[in-house]
Design brief:
By secondary structure, this protein is mainly α. The chain contains eleven helices and three strands. The longest helix is centred in the middle third of the chain and has 28 residues.
């Protein structure tokens, strides 16, 4: 069963997603009889950028002017969600050479944890059982991987709508999308792995594969074969990653977000619901999916500043565009 668990973990780690990049060509808009050349610059995302006024002759009609940008709305989230889902689920068919090394490294680390999960599990729980503060904190922080995570996203939404804070509304929308994406993926992977939870049969590590999916329908068996990977951990890290990236200019927000998510992953072990390897894989998946959702959003709704010489004068402009 150990070999089966290692191979299962290796397969699941292939879901890890490379971050997509984008490139934009130069914007051409000078009259044909003007020998001057344009040059343009592009950045991924600059929501607070201001358009620098250009000379009047810069706005002359040009056939290559970019189309009007698509505004980010809740309605557009549906299309974005489907695009992200397509990228996530099709990734195994598009693995690139540069992705192999980090995936292999993580697979090796996961395999080592699986081989030592029993000892690690007993050590962590022995420590928790002998320290009252762990027993008090563990159930509380555990909720940040389920209702607490969704409550946090709802809080961002409410504050954003009331205070008219676009950043908070955007954070709520992206966090919800990332948590849904990771939740759907992890539910599917749980069915493939069928790993027995540690609270069953005195912490016997057993992998039943897809058969475990059907075992859940037996009397009192629901959820007992859903250990790998962890749902709470993937939810917590999806939320933490989105919040950390949206508020990355702050020193404390990313620290608080990732510390809380790490606490959730450890709490799943002290609550006797998961092995440590479950939490490692789900934490990585949550982080990667959270980054993918945010970066894809930034690539779809970005700003293109441009500068050039028009009719002998240096001019600047900022063009809003989307994919």
């Amino acid at each position: 069963m150990k070999k089966q668990g290692t191979w299962t973990a290796t397969f699941l780690l292939l879901i890890l997603l490379p971050l997509s990049l984008f490139a934009q060509g130069p914007i051409s808009g000078e009259p044909k009889n003007d020998p001057a050349r344009y040059f343009s610059l592009s950045i991924r995302y600059a929501p607070a950028a201001q358009t620098i006024p250009a000379r009047a002759d810069f706005s002359a009609p040009a056939p290559s002017t970019p189309p009007a940008p698509e505004k980010f709305t809740f309605k557009s989230l549906t299309g974005d969600f489907l695009k992200d889902a397509g990228q996530i689920w099709s990734y195994p068919a598009h693995i690139r050479t540069r992705d192999i090394l980090p995936i292999a490294g993580l697979a090796v680390l996961t395999g080592l944890l699986i081989r030592n999960d029993k000892a690690i599990y007993r050590g962590i729980n022995d420590y928790g059982d002998s320290h009252a503060w762990v027993r008090a904190v563990s159930p509380v922080i555990n909720e940040m991987g389920s209702s607490g995570a969704w409550g946090t996203a709802a809080a961002f939404l409410c504050v954003g709508l009331i205070a008219k804070d676009d950043k908070a509304v955007e954070t709520a929308a992206l966090a919800s999308s990332a948590m849904l994406q990771s939740g759907i993926l992890v539910t599917f992977l749980k069915g493939l792995a069928g790993r027995q939870r540690p609270f069953m049969a005195d912490a016997v590590d057993h992998w039943s594969g897809p058969v475990g999916f059907f075992k859940r329908f037996g009397s009192g068996q629901f959820g007992k074969y859903d250990s790998f990977p962890g749902g709470h951990s993937v939810t917590a890290f999806s939320l933490a990653t989105v919040v950390a990236m949206e508020y990355q200019k702050s020193v404390w927000v990313p620290i608080l977000a990732y510390t809380t998510a790490t606490g959730v992953a450890l709490a799943r072990v002290t609550e006797k619901k998961h092995w440590l390897s479950d939490c490692l894989v789900s934490s990585v998946l949550g982080h990667v999916i959270g980054r993918l959702v945010v970066l894809n959003h930034r690539n779809r709704y970005h700003v293109l500043p441009s500068a050039g010489v028009v009719h002998g004068s240096l001019s600047f402009a900022v063009t809003f565009s989307s994919h």
